[in-house]
Amino acid sequence: MRLLIIERPTRFRAKLKRGLERQGFVVDAVADAENADEMARTLDYKMIVLNLELSNGHGLSVFQQWRRAGSRADVVVLIPPGQVEAGVRCLDLGADDYLAMPFEPEELFARLRAVVRRRQPEKTAVLRIHDLEIDTDSRIVRRHGEYVHLTPREFALLELLARNQGRVVTRSMIRDHLYDDRGPKRSNIIDVYIRYLRAKIEYGMEPPMILTRWGEGYVLRAESA
After folding, report:
1. Is residue 212 within a helix (H) or strand (E), and if so which, with residue range?
2. Can you give the CATH number for the domain in which 206 is found?
3. Is residue 225 part of a domain?
4. Number of domains the chain contains
5. pTM tops 0.90, yes or no
6. Could you list the pLDDT tens digit for every one of the 225 residues in the chain?
7. CA 179/CA 152 separation, integer angstroms
């Protein structure tokens, strides 16, 4: 999932970015809402974390413009201490949650996970295909009952394939899911991650789970295949 953080360029922002990337998010971090405005309008962010104190007090105005333009990104607003009314105002304008500063990174991470769960109640937390089990809440994967360690991007790729089980997932879909427009330009980066994933969930096991559709993309084997 692609996420945009609009926060001061501090060590704390870097800590938030690293923590979110470890949880599987693809994260961009910018320092003010004006510079973030074009990114939020043109890139497919599923979630935005916005510090209202930035942009000379115009953060709220920029957020309103996103909603008027039809943005459906989940937005969690960071508000100054003691200004609960600002958070309530943001909720009234369409924010999904707010968090008063200062806060611990784990609290923000928990709020973001809660927003995702609220937005996607139809999604099954545990996906099972043949003997492959993917727990999307705990981010634990097992094959033949054995734990499989995946990196955040490997997990994101596997979940994308699993959510589209039996259907072709194109290379462009994978690239858009894993990277923003400034991501790696290597033409074979998708092949590399597919190879890593196959090595971890298929090596020495039957049946093979990830099928190649030449000229189209990749398919996670359907239950009946």
Report:
1. strand 210-213
2. 1.10.10.10
3. no
4. 2
5. no
6. 788 888 877 888 888 888 888 877 888 888 776 677 778 777 778 888 988 877 555 667 777 777 777 777 888 988 888 888 888 888 888 888 999 888 888 888 888 888 877 765 555 678 888 899 999 888 899 998 999 999 988 999 999 999 888 888 888 888 888 875 555 556 688 899 999 999 999 888 888 899 998 888 899 987 654
7. 12
